[in-house]
Amino acid sequence: MLVRTLKRAGRGxxxxxxxxxxxxxxxxxxxxxxxxxxxxxxxxxxxxxxxTLLSGVIxxxxxAGVSLYEIEHWPLLLADAVHYVCYMIVFxxxxxxxxxxxxxxxxxxxxxxxxxxxxxxxxxxxxxxxAEVRELNALNERRKARYQQQIGGTI
Length: 155
Fold this sequence. Notes:
Number of domains: 2
Order of helices and strands: HHHHH
Low-confidence stretches: none
Shape: elongated
Largest sheet: none
Distance between the termini: 38 Å
Mean pLDDT: 91
Helix content: over 70%
Structural class: mainly alpha
Number of strands: 0
C-alpha cells in the first residue's frame, strides 16, 4: 500500500503543479502570483517556484489521501472525513504562505467551499458505486438463474 500511495502522491504532485499554475493564470493577475507571496520571497521567479512546488504538495497530499479509502475496515464516510481533514491540514498553511488567503475568516470560507465540493464528490461517488453494486447483483442473479436452469434444481 505504501508504494501505491507514493505513486499516487507523485502523480498528484505533478498534476497539482499544473493545476495550480493553470488556476493562477486564469485569475488574470498580472504576476500570476499573489502580491503577498511576491513581497514575501522578493522576486517573481522565486514566487512562481514556490507556488508551483506548493501547489504540487497540495496535489500530492490529495492524491496520497485516496489510499485511505482502501482501509477496508473503515466506513467510507470515515475515510472521506479523514481524507478531507488531512487535505485541510496541508491546504490551509500553504494557502496562507502563498497569499491565497490572508485572514482566518477567508480560510474558514475557503474550507467550507472545499467541504461542499468534497461532499458533492463523495455523494456522486456513492451513487456511482451503488449503481455498480446493483449491476453486479443483477448479473449475479442472472448467473444463478442460468445455473438453476442448467441443473434443473434450486440453490
